[in-house]
Amino acid sequence: MIAGRAVLRSGHAAPCARPGFAVTLVTGGNLAYNRHSSTIRPAVDRRRSAGARQDTPAISITSPADGATVNTDSGSVTVTGTAANVFEGNVVVRVIDAGGAQLAEQPTTADVGGNWSVTLAVGAVDTAATIRAYATSPDDGSVVAEATVNVTFVTTPPAQAEITITTPQDGATIQHRQRQRGRVGNGGERL
């Protein structure tokens, strides 16, 4: 081996050849005139043998937390989470109310770190709901990973009208004049 090059005779292995090193293959005859060069590149075998650990797809919802009460006065709710080993980082987030009606659904994509966030238009509602985040297989569309949290959506009740009485002051005694009822004659006398 000279300067990181391994010289092989046709049909012989190169025990010193490592990824990134150049290999000169001599097929016969004069070494100076009959050489073929190639570089060995590491191959990545994406096939897995039976029993080998697969990279399992996973999804989590980090906010809102399970059991949280979420104010929906704005008409929307932001859901965040993480995804790992899902096709192209694709995640779908769906919100279902207590009666089973879909309030919103929105796809999103996880960033390089696996984090995702989506804002869903659910309306200003007061209901129990389930938020479901899931990823599907590109092969058959089946769900390969999912996470759910149960939440309660609430709105702020309208402010009650407030009445302030400034007079009379609290605890004051009020003199009450009694008016007489009845008919009055022409001269102003009571009948």
Written description of the protein model:
With 191 residues, this protein is mainly β. Among the domains are: 5-39, no CATH class; 58-154, Sandwich (Immunoglobulin-like). It is 0% helix and 41% strand. It has no helices and eleven strands. It has strands at residues 5-9, 22-26, 35-39, 58-63, 69-71, 76-84, 90-97, 102-109, 115-121, 127-136, 143-154. It has a five-stranded mixed beta sheet with strand order 5-11-10-7-8, with no helix packed on it. It is rod-shaped and about 105 Å long. The N and C termini lie far apart (138 Å).
Fold blueprint:
Blueprint (H helix, E strand, L loop, with lengths): L4 E5 L12 E5 L8 E5 L18 E6 L5 E3 L4 E9 L5 E8 L4 E8 L5 E7 L5 E10 L6 E12 L37
Parallel strand pairs: 1-2, 5-11
Antiparallel strand pairs: 2-3, 4-6, 6-9, 7-8, 7-10, 10-11
